[in-house]
Amino acid sequence: MFQYAAAAPSGTSSLISFIVPLVLMFAVFYFLLIRPQKKKQQTRNNMLNALQKGDKIVTIGGLHGTIMEMADDTVVLRVNDVTKLTFDRNAISHRVDTPSESK
């Protein structure tokens, strides 16, 4: 019975052994999850802000179109010669680079 009392750790070492793993877990989560997600979101916001009339884009649903009109939070896409559809700006997945633009 007396061996339990003698083996009890001191108060400061148990506090440090509790805090250090928590700090390490937070650092791992930050560098593996939070930071890359913030960079990805910033890249997406920059792409959405750089869109212009005439850009060819793909929506999140996979619809290909050309931007005809833009407002603060909506875009009007021309899907074919006669069809125009209105989408939220956040529904745009990415811009399509045509081979003639990349040369």
TrEMBL record:
Protein keywords: Cell membrane, Membrane, Protein transport, Translocation, Transmembrane, Transmembrane helix, Transport
Coiled-coil regions, chain positions: none
Keyword Membrane: yes
GO biological process: protein transport
Signal peptide interval: none
Highest rank taxon of the organism: Bacteria
Chief localization: membrane
Locations listed in the record: Cell membrane
NCBIfam families in alphabetical order: yajC
Family that this chain belongs to: Belongs to the YajC family.
Protein name (Swiss-Prot/TrEMBL): Preprotein translocase subunit YajC
Lineage of the species this protein comes from: Bacteria, Bacillati, Bacillota, Bacilli, Bacillales
